[in-house]
Known about the structure:
By secondary structure, chain A is mainly α. Chain A is built from 2 helices and no strands. The N terminus of chain A is likely disordered. Chain B has a single domain, classed as Hydantoin permease (Orthogonal Bundle). Chain B is built from 24 helices and no strands.
Amino acid sequence: MISGGFPIPMPKPIPAAPVADAASAPAPALPPPLPPELEARIEEFERAAPRPDFDGASWFWMMLLGIAIPLALLIVGWWA
Amino acid sequence: MTGASPQADESAWPLLPKERTWGAARLTLTLATTAAATWCYLIGESVGSYLGFIKGGLALGAGCMIGMVLVLLACGPACVRFGIDSIAATKPQFGSRGWVVPAALQAVSIIGWNSLLIIFFAKSAVQLCVTLGLLDLGWRNTALVPALTVIACAIIFLALRRGATGVSMVSNILVAHVFIGLWMLYLLVSRRWPELVAAQPPNASPDRLWNYTTGIELGIGATLSWWPYIGAMIRMAPSGRTIVLPVMLGMAAPVPLLSLIGLAGSLVLKSSDPTEWLRVVGGPAYAIVSLTFVTAANFGTTTAGIYASAIGLRNFAVLQKRTWTTLLLITIAPVALVGIFIPELFFAKFGNFLALIGVAFAPMCGVQIVDYFVLRRGRIDLRAIYVDAPGQAYYFWRGINPAAMIALAAGCITYIGLLNPLSYASAAAYRYLTASLPAAAAAGLVYFLGSLLVIRSGRGGYPRSLPGRLRQW
């Protein structure tokens, strides 16, 4: 925890590995850095708990308005 | 105020929950203003060719609601969870480069429709001036259409300089036209009810089921066309719960209701254009009201369309760092140029092309629904949506997911095999199935099967817990 002023042990620097011949073992290209504003936004989403899409009430209304009522309209319409 | 920083709602970046301040009422107003436009009369007139008033209205209403729920299931979850637009939401399926296909469909569809609507707007405005006595009848009026197009584009540009707030502001002013439209419908229904009920559709097939299915299909197709628009609007709302009723009631319901104007007009007065028949029903005063309605309706829809299109274009790397003003100019310029140089030619010819483009939205929905609910089980890697590099979840093969491309093509072929959108020639199965629903199902099935191969290759960032059995397939 950072709070409380507890000293955080800093990791020892890892000695750099010997560099191989760049031509024989090309390092995989790192993805290009994102704009700082976009990076901050993505990090905020990654830190937060996953956001739900639709809750139970949303599903109820979708099924009612998108399936049940249209089916009823179609049945009534066919016999109209 | 939206609460979003100007940079946020003018970009394709994810909107943070605290920036999404559109409540249900505001979203409903905006969606209703966006949905209500001249195309409602055209849809109503098309349905009126095959079905009577009551049967046609019910088939169209049912079709619109079915189509809307498909769009909502396809775009809604990713857009509302991460505050992204319709195009960004296609990257998990089409890949970190393959999304240009949906983006191209969006751009052509919205710019095409906006051009048509803005020409409608200009023609209605000229007609309104003639009716008010501000202009004489004459050939010079035709020359006013390009000038009015430019003025409309300039007003839209100025309104949209405020980003999504501009869309909401225009909607708050213009939403009254939806109620004017309902009043026009009341007039026609109350004064011509016996004729309406007795009217026979002029092009009805002897096959009752074919007529009925076509009414449903026209409704489904009409609301599927909202796929390019909807993401840019619902990303401004904070949760899934906030969007469902506004989308289903604010966007799906006004289209069939206002289409009844065109349906009734075409059946009784042989004209879907309310500016013509309201003069017959109520005299010049009513004609002025209806012309005002048409003018306002198309203006509101075009504003929302330009905004959605500009946000979609933001996904292109070369346009990410451009100013919002530049992006708006890029989006509005084609609309203005069409209105200035080729309004009549475009008006006459481009409708067919738009009908063909519209065929792709049902398969798109099928692919997205299967991807989100069946294959990914709701797990989306937001970072991978914005990073186009090997090793990222949505890089697939060179940034393209062939499964989605093949599925999209399979869905389009299924649609055209069942119903030719231009000639309405149909296969036998169409009368039982419609064309959009099988197209969405075929695309979803092909995508599912293709994705099994993608999952086996270890690409696509599909969740490890999901495929259990699928991974061993």
